[in-house]
Amino acid sequence: MKRKLVINLSANTLQLIVNQLFGLVIFYILSTGLDKNNFGEINLALALLLAVFNILSFGIDQVAVKKIASGDNPQFILSLYLGHVLITGFAFYGLLLLGRNLFPSTINAYDLVLLIGIGKLMIYFSTPFKQSAIGLERFKLLGYMSVISNIARACSLLVLSLLHAITLHSVIIVFIGGDVLELVISLTLFRRATGLAPAVQWNKPAYRGLLKESLPQLAVVIITSALSRFDWIFIGIVVSAASLAEYSFAYKVFELSTLPLLAIAPLLIPWFTRLFKSGEPITANLKLLVRIEMIVAAFTIVVLNICWTSLIDSLTAGKYGAVNEHTIFILSLCIPLLYFTNFLWTINFAKGRLKMIPIAFIITLSVNVLADIILIPIYKNEGAAVGYLAGYLAQTVFFIIKNDVKEVNKIFYPLLICTGCACLSVFGAKMISANVWVEIVSSVLIYIVGLFLTMQVKMNDGKSLREMIV
Predict the structure, then answer these.
(1) How far is CA 137 from CA 7, 184, 195, 210, in A?
(2) What is the pLDDT of residues 95-109, one digit of tens each?
(3) Are 340 and 291 in contact (CB under 8 A)?
(4) How many CA atoms lie within 13 A of 442 on its CB side?
């Protein structure tokens, strides 16, 4: 099992690196090729659509992974899941088309939602194949299915950029084409690799049972979808599209910085499901893994803030660097909290403690939305970042209180210590020198020394980690 974990981690990490690399190319071309208003309008449309399609999943995606990993018939689960996405996807887009009659026939924000929505509908239809691949632990297959769209879009936009043909219309065409291609490739590769037929065999009682099982997750999906994009939508409506362009740029880089978490998270659900099902004592491994995650997460704070202004301003001709300096610092403080809450969420999900998870996310959403409503009109993008941080602080406290693996709660102290070391290294390096290279070297050294002095890095950590995964 340990060898398989290493193979899966490698495959998932590779696809994430490729995906995020081409995603970064896309984001960079759009942010520099379009003006801030058009860039902000596209991000507003994407925020709305991604939130809606996440909600339409009803939480069945995670339940499907768990059921397939637990040994349920993957063909049967895939069939139920496909039926769900087809029904909900076509119903939603039908409502979008009906709503078009309420708007004039010129290109506006609603047209962007309608057009980009065609592509996102195709992505939504491909999710059952991807989630089934995760449940089957076919992460190499998942990688092929996941990277197609971003590679196609990045290459197309790169050609358009070289031809100086980046326009709002050309970007929409590229987005739709890439998303359609991802659905076709996902269907073809999944059927060829697994032998499972992508057919819908309607079974009303079984579908009703799947929905009932996913209901606790539905609340989580609604809340996390609103949480992840409420600030974008609120900034775009209350402040301006240009401000949303600035915030979305900082937020995108913040998301990219969580790449290690994205590599680990899909592996934890099937792994923890088997471990807790077998009753294997894993407290020591959990504590070690979480502590390592805190060290990596806090180091990301150092890298982001030391390199931010000089690097981003040089890459975007001064559009998104200095203007986002405070925003990215506040967002970066959320990274250790994201690692910590994802770990505890996965433990509770794998153990079947689904009813407490929606409560955690309700608290998070309530704190975040309230903070956004109060702070965004006053502090704009920085206010949104503070709201996001406040929400995850609240969720962290809740999970610690409710977690029944009490030994893991002790990792809260390393979370605080590692984050403190990261902040100290950033501010200390800036005080030492204004030269960016000196800042980078000194910040890393200060961080490493801080970890050893506070006993967050131990000499036998490498050996213990190898024993856990090899």
Answers:
(1) 10, 21, 15, 21
(2) 888 877 765 544 466
(3) no
(4) 17
